[in-house]
Specification:
43% of the residues lie in helices and 23% in strands. The protein has 315 residues and is α+β, with helices and mostly antiparallel strands. It has three domains: 126 residues, Immunoglobulin-like, CATH 2.60.40; 41 residues, no CATH class; 118 residues, no CATH class. α3 runs antiparallel to α7 and α4 packs antiparallel against α6. The N and C termini lie far apart (106 Å).
Length: 315
């Protein structure tokens, strides 16, 4: 449909050579007349051969004084039969002043597949623009009415109700969660069943063993994990404060408990070696590292067995 600069040159030639222009075509309007400010379509119906190129020169802004272009020319192929195309060109106009307007002719250029040019001067119709009639004798100016208020429907309220219910549910769950944490219960008030301290300690020690920390030159992490596990177990088993305390103070309290001399000596050596690793950059031997987990497991098992024996004796 577009041939660029070639069409512009042809347009100038065709304008000069007016004897070659076909003036038999007439455009039409989509309806007879409009009111001020309404829009109307200017329509051009053409028949072309398949493969022909079409351009219609239209001015921008005002098509003619008093008539403005709202939408430029667009083209639509209505049918294609036996190599012939029915083309409809359409542009949208408006006017803001009443009266009769003779729309100007439009120049159409058609180039066939052989490069030959046909020029069509498409005559414009009459556009009638009417005003809205007002009977000044009976017309009464009225006050502007306020906004009409319609009753609120349930469909409009439903999203807000659902949002309120969701917010209330979230607040309720948050309160239950805080109470559960404070009372050491589940969300629905059931007491939380804690694993026994010796089970927790043995599970953690096995996890540390599988991590192979000291084998990967992570002695500090290894001894920290082992001693933290033992501190938790000693606190739960004997009821003494272990966390955030120097090892010496904790061992003094442990010595007063029902712990055999051999087990106490084992723990004393283990914690002393751990302090050297963590604070003095001591590098223990492979044998010392190897015996750390078994010593911790032996301490947990032996003290737990002694606890069972004490409980059985009490009964």
């Amino acid at each position: 449909m577009k041939k660029g600069l070639l069409f512009i040159a042809i347009l100038l030639i065709s304008t000069v050579a007016s004897a070659q222009i076909d003036t038999t075509h007439v455009s039409r309007l989509s309806r007879d007349s409009i009111l001020i400010g309404d829009q109307i379509d200017l329509i051009i119906d053409l028949q072309m051969q398949e493969g022909d190129a079409l351009m219609i020169a239209t001015p921008k802004g005002e098509l003619t004084p008093g008539v403005e272009t709202i939408k430029g020319m667009s083209f639509d192929t209505l049918s294609l039969k036996k190599g012939k195309m029915d083309i409809q060109a359409r542009m949208t106009l408006t006017s803001f002043d009443s009266g009769s307007y003779a729309l100007p002719p439009l120049l159409a250029l058609i180039q066939n597949s052989r490069g030959e040019i046909d020029s069509l001067l498409i005559r414009g119709p009459e556009l009638y623009v009417n005003t809205v009639p007002i009977d000044t004798a009976t017309y009464v100016i009225k006050d502007i009415k306020g906004q009409i208020r319609y009753p609120v429907t349930f469909k409009e309220l439903l999203p807000w109700l659902l949002l309120a219910l969701l917010l209330a549910a979230l607040i309720y769950l948050l309160v239950r969660f805080i109470k559960a944490r404070r009372n050491n219960t589940t969300l629905f008030g059931k007491p939380v069943q804690k694993d026994p301290a010796h089970i927790v300690a043995l599970r953690n020690l096995e996890k540390i063993r599988r991590q192979k920390l000291w084998q990967n030159n992570k002695q500090k992490q290894f001894y920290t994990a082992v001693t933290d596990t033992l501190r938790y177990y000693i606190s739960e088993r004997f009821g003494i404060v272990t966390m955030e305390r120097p090892s010496g103070e904790m061992l003094e309290d442990l010595k007063k408990q029902d712990v055999s001399a051999a087990e106490f000596e084992s723990m004393s050596k283990l914690f002393s070696r751990a302090d050297l690793v963590k604070f003095a950059k001591y590098e223990p031997s492979a044998e010392e590292n190897e015996e750390t987990i078994p010593a911790a497991v032996q301490f947990v098992n032996s003290t737990y067995v002694s606890q069972l024996e004490d409980e059985g004796g009490d009964e």
